[in-house]
Specification:
The structure holds two protein chains of two kinds. By secondary structure, chain A is mainly β. Chain A has three helices and 17 strands. The chains are: A mainly beta, B alpha+beta.
Chain lengths: ~260, ~350
């Protein structure tokens, strides 16, 4: 009930989007359904496949990059076949979608997402509706086989991208995982990175990226983690919007310590 | 459906559309039904329920928190609908129902249990076409004009419709009523005789039609229909033995009128009267019935009465054989309607 009440009082208008594979630890030859979810505090609604919504819905393993297959409108939105042992990276990059928010709600959401620079710019702006174009840059890591520290996440080239610099499925992850945040493939400094766990989504782990775009998070073992970051820029002229935003997310499971 | 898909294709660029959908049906502006289809597991998660099997009971509970994030309002006044829930393998179907406040002009809707965009469709029950709009979770819909889906009850149109229905209930659809009226006419060609009987009949059937429609009198058609047939037979047989108006004949025609009124009520009830125009419909239906009867008499007068009613052979060659045929038909109906 506590969780419900928190959900009810939340003023958040913009929602996270993340990838939820049916299993994080498949075996070679498995066909894995991959769900897309949109929501907050890891409570989310399924997003059925809509081809017009995304630029890329792909997965990459040691054998290369492939598209996730699926029927229009289906949930799970995509399926993949596990071909090789090791770390498998799933990525979903959407086209920009417009959203209109009341100025007050928009400012509130900037505060919640730690977008202080934009908030400061808006301090003296007249209150009006704000039009934003948002893009999803979601990734997920699944693992097939015995965990090895040498296998790492890889960059998929999304506009905003979170990259785990240590394999979260490896034993060494218990000492903390460094993440790198890139914007147009360049390190992005001073951005809030928030992590939450399926088992207790209200308790957030957060830190801001350093000059090299890095942040180190200590994530407890057990359950699915969502690591996320939002970056916003003023929209270019002719975009028919005030701001462009990029929503990076990365999901994976942390194994219970043996 | 095709229309919905086309819409989906048009806005897909813009919205993250989830699996939820909401449809509202307005029944002739009197009651509403809302059907929400949404992902069962996701909803259970938001309500903090571990097992979707418990979802239906949780949602149906009177004080369920589920109610806190849905709102259906008419002219801004929030409803307290009855809620039922059915959990399917991959979706929860939640139904809300209730009465639309009288005179309500618009409705607004808000569904706060989804984070994705969803389609809201609104339609009237007489129409297959629905109006679809896309909403974000927690977004209140723009006011929807109820009048655009509810047929407008124009009083003149209603009046004309029920006059027509009343008339056709006699001519050409009510052969039994036509024969009864003919039986009345055949007794005597004197205008006063016809007028007295028709007035008694009209007064009587208006009384029982009204009483029956307001639920004050209720007699089963199983009783009324055979009695109507007997009344026709009686009037026709009496025509053979009687040639002038007796006071008890007027009283009997009045009594039979009471029976026919109950019969008219049975027919009118099947038409599902608009509640808002009940009295208009009742009065105009009765006027239509009256016009039908007068049309039968006028036709009989023009065909035979006008030229031949003062001829010596009129009674022997017209009244008696016609009354006998009516009597035979009515006796046959009586037997048929009893068994």
């Amino acid at each position: 009930m506590k969780r419900l009440l928190l959900l009810l009082t939340s003023a958040l208008q913009a929602h996270d989007m993340w990838i939820e594979p049916q299993t994080f630890t498949p075996n070679t030859g498995d066909i894995v359904g991959v769900k897309l979810r949109v929501g907050q505090n890891l409570m989310g609604d399924p997003l059925p496949r809509s081809a017009s919504l995304f630029k890329n819905f792909i997965f990459e393993d040691a054998t290369g990059r492939k598209d996730l297959v699926g029927r229009e409108g289906s949930n799970p939105a995509g399926f993949l076949r596990v071909n090789a042992p090791g770390l498998l990276v799933i990525g979903y990059n959407s086209n920009p979608s417009p959203v209109e928010l009341e100025s007050e709600k928009f400012n509130l959401y900037l505060k919640e997402e730690g977008l202080d620079a934009i908030l400061a710019q808006r301090a003296n702006k007249p209150a009006a509706k704000v039009r934003e174009l948002f893009s999803r840059c979601a990734k997920s890591l699944v693992y097939n086989g015995p965990a090895a520290a040498i296998q790492n996440d890889r960059a998929l080239g999304f506009p905003l991208e979170l990259i785990a610099e240590r394999n979260p499925y490896a034993q060494s992850a218990a000492t903390g995982i460094p993440f790198r945040l890139t914007y147009n493939n360049q390190p992005l400094a001073g951005t809030l990175v928030i992590a939450m766990n399926r088992l207790n989504p209200m308790e957030k782990v957060h830190a801001r990226t350093g000059k090299d775009g890095r942040v180190r998070l200590h994530l407890s073992p057990g359950g699915m983690w969502l690591v996320k970051a939002v970056h916003m820029t003023p929209a270019p002229a002719g975009a028919n919007a005030d701001y462009m935003s990029y929503w990076a997310s990365l999901t994976f499971e942390m194994r219970q310590a043996k | 459906m095709i229309r919905l898909l086309l819409l989906a294709a048009l806005v897909a660029q813009a919205h993250e559309i989830g699996t939820s959908r909401v449809s509202i049906v307005l029944h002739a502006g009197r009651t509403y039904d809302v059907e929400i289809a949404t992902d069962a597991a996701a909803l259970a998660e938001k309500l903090n329920i571990t097992n979707t099997a418990k979802l239906a009971a949780f949602i149906e509970a009177q004080s369920s928190p589920f109610r806190q994030r849905i709102q259906l309002a008419f002219d801004g006044a929030a409803m307290q609908p009855a809620i039922s829930c059915q959990v399917l393998p991959d979706a929860a179907i939640i139904r809300l129902s209730g009465t639309i406040p009288q005179g309500a002009r618009n409705l607004t809707w808000n569904f706060g249990w989804t984070f994705a965009s969803y389609a809201l469709s609104v339609r009237g029950d007489e129409s297959k076409d629905s109006t679809t709009q896309w909403l974000e979770g927690s977004q209140t819909s723009p006011p929807f004009d109820i009048g655009s889906v509810t047929p407008q009850f124009n009083r003149w149109r209603t009046a004309w419709r029920y006059i027509t229905l009343g008339f056709t209930h006699i001519m050409p659809n009510g052969l039994d009523h036509m024969l009864f009226v003919l039986g009345i006419y055949l007794l005597s060609s004197r205008a006063r005789t016809v007028l007295m009987q028709v007035s008694a009949f009209t007064l009587a059937h208006s009384i029982t039609l009204g009483l029956s429609m307001y639920g004050l009198v209720s007699v089963s058609p199983k009783v009324v229909e055979p009695l109507i047939a007997i009344s026709i037979a009686y009037v026709a047989i009496e025509n053979i033995f009687l040639s002038e108006l007796k006071s008890w004949r007027v009283a009997l025609v009045f009594a039979f009128g009471l029976l026919h009124g109950l019969g008219f009520a049975g027919a009118l009830k099947e038409l599902d009267l608009p509640r808002s125009e009940f009295l208009t419909a009742l009065l105009t239906f009765n006027i239509g019935v009256e016009a039908g009867q007068l049309a039968v008499i006028a036709a009989a007068f023009l065909l035979v009465g006008w030229h031949y009613s003062n001829r010596a052979w009129y009674r022997g060659r017209v009244v008696v054989p016609a009354s006998a045929m009516i009597a035979v038909t009515a006796v046959y109906w009586t037997v048929e309607r009893i068994f």
